[in-house]
Design goal:
Elements: H1 9-17, H2 34-92, H3 95-104
Length: 142
């Protein structure tokens, strides 16, 4: 039978009854391959998702490591301040400090000592030379 591009009579009869039946294509017509192209884009989307998730995880991990470092530094600083405050409490509870305040601020003297006052210009207060403020209450390190 010569090739006319028309369906053969048995195929024509099947097309009349089943419209979804395969139609014969010419030999040189390109065959459409939708499935591999669809699979390619699906695989590309999956790989893109995994790459995005991995990069997002790395960025979040670096941010958390920076926060941990900052908080560890803050903990060390607060530990140092707690040690300084403990030393201050120990000094304020000592007999040396209590005697100094009794003599300088209250004018107390020991038995057998004489007290005298020197007139001087009034002080404006404790000079704040160190921070934090309570460090001024401790004796200066030598």
């Amino acid at each position: 039978m010569p090739e006319t591009g028309l369906p053969s009579p048995p195929l024509a009869a099947s097309l009349a009854t089943d419209p979804l039946a395969e139609v014969a294509r010419p030999a040189n017509a390109p065959r459409r391959r939708l499935t591999p192209l669809l699979l390619f884009f699906l695989a590309l989307a999956v790989v893109g998702y995994f790459v995005f998730t991995a990069v997002d995880g790395v960025v979040n991990n670096n941010g958390l490591e920076m926060q941990i470092t900052t908080l560890e530094d803050e903990i060390a600083e607060l530990g140092w301040q707690a040690d300084q405050l403990s030393a201050l409490v120990g000094y304020l509870d000592s007999d040396e400090y209590i005697e100094r305040i009794a003599r300088e601020a209250l004018g107390f003297v020991r038995v057998g000592e004489e007290s005298f006052a020197v007139e001087a210009p009034p002080r404006t207060g404790l000079p704040i030379t160190r921070t934090p403020w309570w460090a001024n209450l401790l004796p200066m390190p030598r």
